[in-house]
């Protein structure tokens, strides 16, 4: 959809036919879709045709919404005719933007009952469930959108790329837009990625109707960068850098680019991006993200200062975790399940903020080979982290590296391996290797041999399955 050329075309038509005010409206709509919001608002303000008043108010409210002027957007939406079905839908969008996902969900459901099934509304409902962390409900609506898309539009080739078929691009057509397939599958990616189901997350992207890279929307490109960063970091960084130069870009792009630079220890690049985009810092980074990135970037020049920054953050998070633990216990005594669930969710979210800080602190001493100090850091956090797999894994590695604590290390590796014992190839090779060494060093040779035999059997089965797949014919369209 070439909105820039549409802007030029309608601008000329509006000048050539000043007595046809619809061209002014179309010009303003094209400017809005091209994200030229001040220009769109300027054109809208010149339209005084009474018959177009309703369309003008709707466009004005959409512009204010996109500018994040939610108060004025709401005032304008409330001026819609009472029987206009868009009223409920747009108020739902405003509630969503305000973070009131319960109210937004209620309004989207109301709109759906008035307007009937629409993929766009089903996606909005799924998005509310996602924000409420009701992932199974979100996936239920996503599955419905995808199933309807496959049934009603087989020509869009949903899922064919995942099956290994080589298809031509279906383009960014109005039909594709109306199905909400791209939005739904991107949301499925978000759910699976958050749940750390990375294979399912990748399949959500390959299930999309095929498009060439230059045709991809910003969210799909962002998600491709995230899922592919470990296998091709340079391509992932190139995609995120490109997105940052676009208007608009997914809000998570800025933080993800910075965090990934730091993950790969490109601290200078992270510092440069921060310095060159100070206008984005307050808009797209939380205080936590800024403080964490600031500490990471300081690692290169002053590890002591970085450790102190991490320590201050860790203490804040630990105090918050203690308060939330107390709150959860008090609420559980009152038998208020909904409030208790929300308190547990708050605890889990705070723990997910605390862990990266803790790991960054530990890494400073890990890099120095001071594993006893690393163990001491982890022991401080046992109160909150003892059930977390990431914490258990890193404690196991720390004990293993000290070479005198193989039995204790095995005690941390074993639950991770046991959890995936049916499919051991899903477990990192380093974990399996280290556990075998632990067994051998503690004279548990039978356990080591059993584990190695199980891995060998699975590798043989996987090889056989792969050979069978290769023998299947592949269709080309």
TrEMBL record:
Keyword Iron: no
Pfam families: TPR_16
Organism encoding this protein: Oesophagostomum dentatum (Nodular worm)
Main location: other
InterPro entries: TPR-like_helical_dom_sf, TPR_rpt, TT30
Annotated localization: Cell projection, Cilium
N-terminal signal peptide: none
Similarity field: Belongs to the TTC30/dfy-1/fleer family.
Lineage per the UniProt record: Eukaryota, Metazoa, Ecdysozoa, Nematoda, Chromadorea
Its job: Required for polyglutamylation of axonemal tubulin. Plays a role in anterograde intraflagellar transport (IFT), the process by which cilia precursors are transported from the base of the cilium to the site of their incorporation at the tip.
Single annotated GO MF: intraciliary transport particle B binding
Coiled-coil regions listed in the entry: 314-341, 438-468
Name recorded for this polypeptide: Tetratricopeptide repeat protein 30
Keywords on record: Cell projection, Cilium, Cilium biogenesis/degradation, Coiled coil, Repeat, TPR repeat
PANTHER family: TETRATRICOPEPTIDE REPEAT PROTEIN 30 (PTHR20931)
